[in-house]
Structure formats: C-alpha cells, structure tokens
C-alpha cells in the first residue's frame, strides 16, 4: 500500500488532520509595454486595446467553455504599467471588443474611480469590489473611439485574468 507522501508529496498533514488542503497555484500575470494614450483617450477614460487584449476574454471563454465570450464579461487585472495611482484595469467585453479601463486609487488612499483623471463627474468607491458590485447593477458607459459611439453594459460574467 502506498503512503500519502508518495501519492501527494505537497501535502504536509495526515488524512485525519482537519486542515488538509492542496497548494493553491498563483495566477500568472504577464507584464507588457503600456500603450501610448492620446489626450482625447485620456479625457474620455478609455484606452485602445491591442489585438492581444481584444482576444484575451474570448480566449478565456474558449479555454474554459464559459459565458466569458458574451457581452458583459469582465475581469479586474493588475495594470501593466506603474501601479502607484492606477493599480488595476477593468477589462470589459462588448460586441467582440475588449475595453480596458484604468482603475485609479485617489490621493486620499481610501477611494477608487474608473478612467483617467480630469473628468468633471466621476463616481467614487470605497473599494474595487464595491465598484464592481455597483456596475453589476448599473450600466457602465463605454466609449468606442473608432466610431465615437457611447455604449452601455453591466458587468455580468466575471472571468479570470
């Protein structure tokens, strides 16, 4: 008969132990160059998605066979640039395109806002989780820079980054 150590060397406790758990894999995060943002893009809070970013949520959907390829699929991922005031990015899928919106931590350190600085009206949130919860119930405005159209969607299907 094989011992537990032979079958699962990562386990450090016996089967009778109440705290028997497998190691949790850490997510892989790729950090690439940050896209150049024009003044108009900075003003409206949207950034241009690269072809890799456009397909990221679709690739996740295909790999996981989930609803991530549907409008409203979203993920919150670490920002690819300096993470001081923009620690995260909200990626939202709508009509086959991924919209990447920076999540800013305000100077007070207690609030978060979507988009770039300099907007007249912005909603403030006490946490990123509160922001996501809000936009699961209220439409999030997304600006298509190519056509200039403004579209709305709720955050419906969480995906992994």
From TrEMBL:
Biased composition (Polar residues): 40-49, 56-69
Gene3D superfamilies, A to Z: SH2 domain
GO cellular component: cytoplasm
Keyword terms: SH2 domain, Signal
Region annotated Disordered, chain positions: 32-81
Signal peptide: 1-16
Biological processes per GO annotation: cell surface receptor protein tyrosine kinase signaling pathway; intracellular signal transduction
Domain SH2: 42-159
PROSITE patterns for this protein: SH2 (PS50001)
Stored InterPro entries: Immunoreceptor_sig_adapters, SH2, SH2_dom_sf
Record protein name field: SH2 domain-containing protein
